[in-house]
Design a protein that fits this description.
The complex is a heterodimer of chains A (151) and B (103).
Chain A lengths: L1 H38 L3 H8 L4 E2 L3 E4 L3 E2 L5 E7 L4 E8 L6 E6 L4 E9 L5 E9 L2 E11 L7
Parallel strand pairs in A: 1-9, 3-9
Antiparallel strand pairs in A: 2-4, 4-7, 5-6, 5-8, 8-9
Helix pairs in contact in A: 1-2
Chain B lengths: L5 E7 L2 E7 L22 E8 L2 E8 L8 E7 L6 E8 L4 E7 L2
Antiparallel strand pairs in B: 1-2, 2-5, 3-4, 3-6, 6-7
Classes of the chains: A alpha+beta (151), B mainly beta (103).
Chain lengths: 151, 103
């Protein structure tokens, strides 16, 4: 009898725990999904966290300087002509954490963002666009003559 | 308290272009100060922009966004008197909201 009661309680507790986790998940899902991507140490790590490796696309216009005198301030702008653009990401390949920024594009906002990022050393910069659930990318090389991490 | 953002918004042919310049150190947590001590990380993690209470852009940032971040984007719509509100939140939990009225 005692044993049965214990088993019952344990089952109940497990069920409750499972329910609590499930209830919290949707709220935290968005932010935590990107948290992992921001912490990934290399490009493959970021793509793994995103769940897909982007395919190169010529529908993404990625503007960045060929040579950046100051790696701490590298202007980048991305224009996506892909229909259903949902997210635009900026990745810097050789930064300690390549993921620099994610922009969520709601409907009514154009697939365009411009910002400035830090680039630690000469490397490839990637613009990754999520459109209709798929990932696309564009790549540019930027030469840095002065590092972006405070020398 | 952080200094105010500079926001400029102009509407041409039904599309509003917003330019925002935020004032923030954006410390990565990897830089050392003159004494060789690591400067703790302090950077903006989230930015949202509203046009008359409608979300027009949200962004998640890492430490690789430059000091005093610049952000430019465009959304459809926007009329004279409309408000554009930009808010950021950083790793220390500080936040700042500034707005601009479309002319």
């Amino acid at each position: 009898m005692k044993l049965q009661r214990r088993t019952f309680l344990r089952l109940g507790a497990a069920a409750l725990g499972g329910f609590a986790t499930a209830a919290c998940w949707p709220l935290r899902a968005m932010a935590s999904a990107f948290d992992a991507a921001f912490k990934a140490p290399d490009m493959n790590g970021v793509f793994k966290e995103l769940g897909a490796t982007p395919t190169p696309s010529d529908q993404i216009q990625f503007v960045s300087p060929d040579i950046a005198e100051n790696g701490a301030v590298v202007p980048v702008s991305i224009t996506s002509k892909l229909p259903g653009t949902e997210q635009i990401m900026v990745l810097v390949e050789k930064n300690p954490n390549p993921m620099a920024a994610v922009f969520m594009i709601p409907e009514g906002t154009e697939g365009f963002v411009s910002t400035r990022v830090k680039v630690g050393q000469t490397c490839n910069l990637y613009a990754v666009v999520k459109a209709n659930g798929k990932f696309y990318s564009a790549m540019r090389e930027t030469k840095v003559t002065l590092g972006g991490c405070g020398g | 308290m952080a200094s105010p953002m500079k926001i400029r918004a102009t509407t041409t042919a039904g599309v509003t272009e917003v330019k925002a310049l935020m004032s923030h150190p954006m410390e990565t947590g990897r830089r050392k100060d003159a004494d060789g001590q690591l400067v703790p990380a302090h950077y903006i993690t989230e930015v949202t922009a509203l046009h008359n209470d409608k979300l027009v852009l949200s962004a998640y940032w890492g430490p690789a966004v430059s000091q005093n971040p610049f952000l430019q984007f465009r959304f459809k719509g926007g009329a004279s008197g409309d408000k554009v509100v930009v808010t950021w939140t950083d790793t220390k939990g500080e936040s700042r909201t500034d707005e601009v009225v479309l002319s």
